[in-house]
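RECORD TYPE: inverse folding
INPUT: structure tokens
STRUCTURE:
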């Protein structure tokens, strides 16, 4: 994580910020498994970093949307670029503080993560997968579907850290879970962009492409992939993950 922070300071590439957020998410997933509150005082600097990175990345995402869809509102484009420059500069000025805080949190985390019984981990996965299945079956509330994706990603993050014998007992099709979370992520981004499109259209801006069609297409893909979730999640006994 610290390497990606330093890399962003030097290059200001959004991919480095994305990798920082992924690392924080992985830590948060492990803490959840250990029943540790991410909002605890010891972890406050990590949450602060996560939120700060998110502010900068949000501007990148909006600019990417503008570039992809040909938004012609020059005033809006200029504003976004100015905002990006300002937020990136503010973040870079605080990187040394973030590095120091992250190092201190890294020193605390091993003491928070306890040895978790195998039985509890198996139960944790069973419970979380049921919650995901419920969210996907309803397929009504975008926030619920998005939350289901977060749970899937947390399960994948934790899975990557498990001993191989235990991971094998779970009999999870990680390939399927990755495919599902990916299409939900793309659909949710398109859904958010569609809302931005409506705001832009209301202000008289013109887009080369409308994101509604893309959003509907991705949602249809999600419906197909999510069918028989519980069956698809479990790998055959003779196959690998």
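DESIGNED SEQUENCE:
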């Amino acid at each position: 994580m610290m390497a990606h922070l330093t890399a962003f300071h030097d290059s200001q590439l959004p991919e480095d910020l994305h990798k920082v957020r992924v690392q924080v998410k992985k830590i948060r997933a492990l803490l959840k498994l250990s029943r540790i509150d991410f909002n605890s005082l010891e972890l406050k600097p990590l949450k602060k970093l996560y939120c700060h990175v998110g502010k900068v990345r949000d501007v990148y995402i909006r600019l990417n949307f503008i570039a992809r869809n040909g938004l012609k509102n020059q005033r809006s484009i200029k504003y976004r670029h100015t905002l990006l420059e300002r937020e990136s500069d503010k973040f870079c000025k605080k990187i040394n503080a973030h590095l120091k805080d992250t190092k201190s949190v890294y020193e605390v985390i091993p003491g928070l993560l306890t040895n978790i019984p195998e039985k509890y981990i198996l139960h944790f996965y069973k419970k979380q997968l049921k919650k995901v299945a419920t969210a996907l079956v309803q397929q009504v509330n975008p926030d619920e579907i998005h939350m289901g994706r977060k749970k899937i990603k947390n399960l994948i993050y934790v899975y990557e850290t498990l001993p191989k014998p235990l991971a094998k007992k779970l009999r999870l099709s990680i390939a399927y879970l990755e495919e599902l979370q990916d299409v939900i992520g793309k659909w949710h981004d398109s859904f958010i962009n569609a809302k931005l499109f409506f705001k832009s259209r209301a202000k008289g801006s013109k887009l080369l492409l409308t994101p509604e069609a893309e959003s509907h297409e991705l949602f249809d893909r999600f419906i197909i992939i999510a069918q028989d979730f519980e069956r698809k999640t479990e790998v055959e006994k003779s196959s690998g993950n």
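NOTES: Confidence is low (pLDDT under 50) at residues 202-209.
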